[in-house]
Amino acid sequence: MRLTVKDVLKYKILNSAKIVTGKEYAEKRHIQWISAIEMPVENFVRKNEAVLTTGIGCGDDSEAFKVFVQDVIDSDASALMVALGRYIFDIPTEVIELAEKNNFIIIVIPWEIRFSSIIESVMKEINDIEYKEREKSEKVQQELLKLILKNTDLKEISKFVEKHIGYPIAITDRSGTLQKKSIHTQAFIKEWKKYVLQGILPSRTESTLLKGDPMFQKFQMVKIGNRFVFQIPVLQVADNPQGYIFVLVPDSESIESFLTLFRVNVLEHAATTIALWLSRRNAIEETKMRLRSDFVHELSKGEFLSLDQADSRAKLLGYNLKLPYVCIVGYPENMKILFQKRKQDYDSYEHWLESMIQYIEEEIYYAAQSLKKDMLMTYQGEQLVIFLETPGVKENENATNFLDLVERRLGNLLPEVIISWGIGNAFEGILGFGESFRHASTALSIGRRKKGSGQRMMYEQTRVDRVLLNMAGNNEMKEIIMSTIEPLVQYDEQRHMDLIGTFIAYNQFHGNVSQTARSLNLHRQSLLYRLRKIESLTGLSLIDPDDLFLLDLSIKIWKIGEHAVMAGQN
């Protein structure tokens, strides 16, 4: 229920009042406040406020009165009541035209009517309406508290709130992730994720489209597509949002008709109730996630010596360690770069990263469920560590199919995210967790060095690279390699001629000068000059098979280590 301009005009005290403009809007314009104001208006008039004035200071100056009326209109006031007979004797034509142009209500009243009598009557009715609305909302608050005490599911709380406000709502955590997704359709969830990842939801700007009304400062209107949603923060003790309520209002609904006092009170009570629910749920979920994450981390480090030791904890966490698994390690490559593009929408990198990893983990879980495979996962040290059930210890095709599905889903949801993957060997037994993790980490490291970011590497494909890395760890081998390749490295750094790349191409084409020159877009003479320079710097002959083998081996070991094993330590 709301007090409208038409209701106020029915007061006995205003029998002699006359509507000059906007009569057709009297039933639609509601009044939340009333005050007497004279020039200047500045910011003293609130939205939906009825303004009383004598026009003092305007006198015969119709232009000054017009400016005054324009300021009142700009303040989103409900109506202007002008007392005629002392300073203003009639409403100027240009002021009437201004009011009609803006669909604004101007009412004239006799000088004899006291403003205090009008204010008293209006405030009495406003207070009566607010009392009744508050009484209704307090009953809702009591019901909400009962729901919390009964450990009611969030789905039931949502239904209760929707029933009282008349519109559907969505409840999210602080990153915008929907809670209780079973309430919503898959199409809605997909669309919602898109707006969250674009940084549109939740809105983190401090401005609000309702700033003219002090009652609704917590409310924000957020545009998504061709519609608006209302966002209400679910606060915790430090006044930091731990979640949000979004009210999905149809396009046909105006702000004025939606934001009744009753709905505002119900939503505030709902925010308090949901804050309690989220606090309790978060404490439980964070404990579960930490226990699961720590358990998977301990498995990957090989800290369990027997199956019995690990199995008791695994059963409590819902894991089956007796199945064959394969370890997959993923490294998101470009998270900080992506954050720089959107950092204005987030409080911190850590907050944004938490949200992104959560979405990546959701897609990984979904892929495992789609393939009907058990899975253990943790995110530690900037890496996703996954243990995926596999059909047998000799089958790694399962991991490839799994990553195909993960990347396909992430390509639709997070197309800009680049993840490199390392795949270990399939295994059985408790000791296999640690070994497969080490193999997957080695494959990831070699794959990133050899193939670049965003690629996959299986451990079984790294045999040659592992041999080279082991050779690189030998001190005598380091000396041989560095004495061979260091002159080329220094020359390339000084002259930017890329002699190392030239040799790799020359060796790839089995010493064919014409093919090598074409692949490098070089003249034959330029290529021959480079080859002679390689021979003079290294003291090796490119037609001697032993020298050729030594130079090729040295370059391969140097490249696989990316200077870290030898040149960085030299």
From TrEMBL:
Residues 308-446 form the CdaR GGDEF-like domain. It comes from the Bacteria. Residues 500-557 form the PucR C-terminal helix-turn-helix domain. It holds the Pfam family HTH_30. InterPro entries: CdaR-like_regulators (IPR051448), CdaR_GGDEF (IPR041522), Homeodomain-like_sf (IPR009057), PucR_C-HTH_dom (IPR025736), PucR_C-HTH_sf (IPR042070), PucR_dom (IPR012914). Residues 7-126 form the Purine catabolism PurC-like domain. Belongs to the CdaR family. This is PucR family transcriptional regulator. It comes from Cytobacillus oceanisediminis 2691.
